Write a sequence for this structure.
């Protein structure tokens, strides 16, 4: 079968057509067989270089576990991280729509700017989703410290009904780990970094707030903020992120008004202490602006506006993936069933329900599937067999060693102590001249 011929089998999944390709992975529309029948999902197949770096794989497993905790209308659900013939892949919610970057290109082809209400509604949804992730806590009630790190137009999807979905949590972190071995992996993303991220300083949730501000600024003005003809290298872009003066959007587009200008400007404050305190606060401000200046612009209006823009765009502007979707029901958290290739799999809905109980001693154990059978848990996971992984990855996922492994480790420790004691006795006898 030709590599460009579809459908193609991929383990238990069927790849129907490609949806996109980037430095880290290729994304496909895929079909999964469930007890409820065939279901559509998005399958993100990582490039081979990811699996060759065990530290990157370790990070990928950890990030996948985090992503599966999210259950929010503005975050595309992650169902599974699997491994097929050495290739790692994600199974995710299929969002039947278009990414924000493609919308921007369509608008530019028409010589227009994105309508302000469209820009504000989309980014308010992104901020809501991020706030959900930023405020996620672990079993003991401690904040998990989630940061997306790659809030950019291509990671914001708008479906045919006007729902806004953020994708690719954690992928930028893994990309940073292996960029030395996969050239160009984050090319084009520097322009959406925060100043602290561009300076390789510690970051928190407010780094994502700055990235939302960049997206808003560009959507409202119609021009790039930290990119330009003179910025021909990543170093020039990173320097611009750290130092380039940022003009108010209402100075460039006066009809936007000072209130929206202030909202955007505060999200783009370089000193972290002066920046909008949280993605939730930014969402509140943007939704407040919508209530005052565009009260009737809702998801239905967003869908109609995007449809109109795409219909008017010149031929060749839109991505080829915008073709009719097969008449097959989409995968849901209720219908999802882990495959035999699972490395980590858990229902986001079950996790969200578990997160409502903050009593650590009552929390169910994580339902993670590795190379050995793991029993059913109250969290809704399913026991099955998956590909074997290094012990370090199992430990990272919170799995306890087997009894046999524990005994082996105990005996290794005993022999090490005996050897050390014997060597100490010999050294002492040598010093006193007995041997």
């Amino acid at each position: 079968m030709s590599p460009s011929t579809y459908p193609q089998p991929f383990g238990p999944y069927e790849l129907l057509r490609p949806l996109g390709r980037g430095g880290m992975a290729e994304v496909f529309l895929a079909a999964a067989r469930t007890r409820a029948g065939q279901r559509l999902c998005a399958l993100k197949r990582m490039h081979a270089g990811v699996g060759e770096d065990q530290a990157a794989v370790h990070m990928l497993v950890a990030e996948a576990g985090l992503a599966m905790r999210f259950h929010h209308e503005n975050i595309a659900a992650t169902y599974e991280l699997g491994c097929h013939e050495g290739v790692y892949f994600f199974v995710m919610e299929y969002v039947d729509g278009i990414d924000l970057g493609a919308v921007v290109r369509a608008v530019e082809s028409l010589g227009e700017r994105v309508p302000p209400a469209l820009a504000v509604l989309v980014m308010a949804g992104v901020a809501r989703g991020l706030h959900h992730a930023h405020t996620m806590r672990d079993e003991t009630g401690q904040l998990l410290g989630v940061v997306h790190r790659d809030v950019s137009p291509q990671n914001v999807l708008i479906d045919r009904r006007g729902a806004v979905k953020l994708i690719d949590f954690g992928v930028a972190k893994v990309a940073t780990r292996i960029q030395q071995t996969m050239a160009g992996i984050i090319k084009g993303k520097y322009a959406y970094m925060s100043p602290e991220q561009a300076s390789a300083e510690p970051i928190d949730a407010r780094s994502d707030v700055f990235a939302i501000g960049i997206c808003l600024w560009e959507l409202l003005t119609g021009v790039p903020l930290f990119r330009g003809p003179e910025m021909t290298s990543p170093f020039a872009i990173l320097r611009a992120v750290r130092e380039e003066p940022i003009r108010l959007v209402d100075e460039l587009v006066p009809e936007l008004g000072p209130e929206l200008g202030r909202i955007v400007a505060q999200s783009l404050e370089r000193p972290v202490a002066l920046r909008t305190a949280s993605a939730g606060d930014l969402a509140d401000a943007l939704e407040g602006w919508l209530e005052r200046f565009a009260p009737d612009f809702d998801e239905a209006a967003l869908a109609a506006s995007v449809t109109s823009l795409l219909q008017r765009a010149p031929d060749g502007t839109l991505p080829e993936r915008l073709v009719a979707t097969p008449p097959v029901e989409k995968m849901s958290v209720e219908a999802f069933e882990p495959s035999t290739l699972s490395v980590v799999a858990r229902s986001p809905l079950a996790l969200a329900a578990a997160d409502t109980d903050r009593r650590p001693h009552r929390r169910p154990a994580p339902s993670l599937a590795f190379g050995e059978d793991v029993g059913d848990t109250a969290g809704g996971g399913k026991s099955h067999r998956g590909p074997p992984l290094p012990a370090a990855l199992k430990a990272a996922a919170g799995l306890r060693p087997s009894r046999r492994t524990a005994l082996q480790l105990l005996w290794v420790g005993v022999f090490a102590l005996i050897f050390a004691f014997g060597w100490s006795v010999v050294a002492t006898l040598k010093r006193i001249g007995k041997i």
In short: The mean pLDDT is 78. The chain has 15 helices and ten strands. Residues 403-431 form the longest helix (29 residues). The longest strand covers residues 25-34.
